[in-house]
Predict the structure of RNA polymerase sigma-70 region 4 domain-containing protein.
Amino acid sequence: MKGELPMHPEEVTVKLFQVLPKRTKDVLDQRFGLGKNPKRMTLDAIGQKYGITRERVRQIEFDGLNRIRKSGAFDEMKPVFAALEKYFDDNGGTLKENMALENLAPHPKHANHVYFLLALHSNFARLHENDFLHDRWTHGKDSEERADKVLKNAVEALRKVGTPVPERQLYEVMASSAQSVLGGAVANNVLNNWLSLSKLISKNYFGEWGLIEFSSIKPRGMKDLSHMVLSKKGEPMHFSEVAAGIGKLIGRAVHVQTVHNELIKDPRFVLVGRGLYALKEWGYEPGVVRDVISNLLKGGALTKEKIIETVSAKRFVKPNTILINLENKKHFKKLSDGRYSVR
């Protein structure tokens, strides 16, 4: 959700910097990327530029920020900081860094000015990414802890589901998690902001949501992509069709033979016809036509017609192919009543 400050963030920093000596201003410009170079420089890089230690640069930065905080200019900017606080409070208190900067900056080139204002105001805290959450800014007591608990609860709920869910169901999971953790309803914009914090919950190529540990959410290589394409189709596909489907998903052509090679090696896929593959989870048995007949007849002798009907549902082959296999006397025998059984 876009936010609007009562004063342009660049104008705010210009006014605040008027209370600083030139070198301090230059150091802060470089530390926060507020000048012509938008890249935020490290303490070491700035120290090398001025021929001073990184600790001295840190002291200059610290002194500059304190000078601003104690200045009359800072007091004049209270409405700006109040607007920042309100934006955070309205959106759950904790926001993913790039989302907060994008929504609060009138233009991407002004994002560093918003970053500076957040760093300047002691009521905001920046938290580095970890294994579960992205870089984020937080405002308000326990706001980060609340977001973290809701997300962890949602992750466990999605793990129990075990498969991708549509966006509507995802927000039902998030809302239920918030209700369970916080004891009350939470607005969708807050759930959306908290959701963006998570490194564990993501969306796949089809707009479905789940955990990145699911291969159907974060596919690892051609095998998982093939599984996604076949799952979405819901019926057997030729390996060239699978390759074309993968190409549409990832936005670039893939080698058909590479896809075929992966399908052959992965036990999740079953060859059910000439170049046709199905998913084993659909009930298809691995093996050639002879294997399918053998498994079928283990349950008892059957007529030729019943064998052709049943095998045809499991393999996309001509009836004559089934008959040729059935006449293999090494593996099958014809009984006196015309039915067939395994030897």
About this structure: The first strand starts at residue 94 and ends at 96. The two ends are 71 Å apart (CA to CA).
